[in-house]
Design goal:
heterodimer; A: mainly alpha; 5 helices; about 80% helix; about 0% strand; B: alpha+beta; Immunoglobulin-like; 5-stranded antiparallel sheet; 3-stranded antiparallel sheet; 8 strands; rod-shaped
Chain lengths: ~130, ~200
Amino acid sequence: MMALVSCPPIAYMSFDFMFPNISTPSLEKNLLSVFLLSTLVGMPVGYGSRRTDAAVVTVVLYVTVGYLVGAAAYSTPYMLYGLELILPGFYYSLYFRFTILLVFLYVLGGFIGAILGQVVKDSIRREETKATWD
Amino acid sequence: MGIVDDVKEHPLFAIIYVAMSLFFIGALVVSALTYSHVVRGNLLITLDDPQEDVQVLENGSLVLSFSIDVVNPSRYDLRTSSLYWSVRISNGTPYHPSYIPLGVSYKGPTEEITIEAGDTCTLAYSVTVSDRALLSRVYGFINYSSSIGNEYSVMTVPYENEIRLYAGMDDFKHDYVREGYLNDLVEVELYYVDED
């Protein structure tokens, strides 16, 4: 479930990276913004997962789902209006060519965010335990 | 049910998390719809209903008029960056083209025309050919055509009108240097040539 809630930012960032001039709001192909947002998206996953390996798998899962949803958004004119796609292989290879680098940023940012989320969760638990025993 | 317990413990965090997700879903839907409308709009914008007119004045000058409609059924205003019209007579062959230029008009980015969304704009041009040398070339073409079996009058000469329009859709950015596909996405290029 966490993968489903975390995948929209990934889908949006992939689509926005492809068309920054028509996306609202736009990150304007700024890789640092993409990385920071990926880290932010990964934090709730780390916070909500009890085990680190579960958090890692969830990160990979939401990046995969989000990237595919972004590819579906990229196909919207042809799905919505029934327009003919002349060279579908070229059309999608263009999407993958431009956005494949982002997948690494999503995963790396997600891992770092998941670790940060777990660190935050552990420190909150420690404070709560301390408060209980004081 | 660890996640449910965590949500109950920190409801504000859960609300912010879901709100962020909903925000990006909304942004993705809006952006994808914008992309669809831009692509579809680009296909629907056309030049339509070309009209030509030729008049001969009392002093022998020719007045050549041309009008054409720019049909914009898309959701976005078109702002022209370049508008070029020319009228000429083709007196060569496909392998050796040759023209008698009669008139030309050019409007650059500083003379932008806005064609509003859902609207049709009629572009009208007119040129008066009064130069004697040029008129003699036109009559020379008529005489030569007659000698090879094509009977023309000044009114029925196959004047070739050409119009070329470049416009940008709405205020979408289209001055990318490396990503040319982004410029092509929101730019419209229309071309019409009347080859009788």
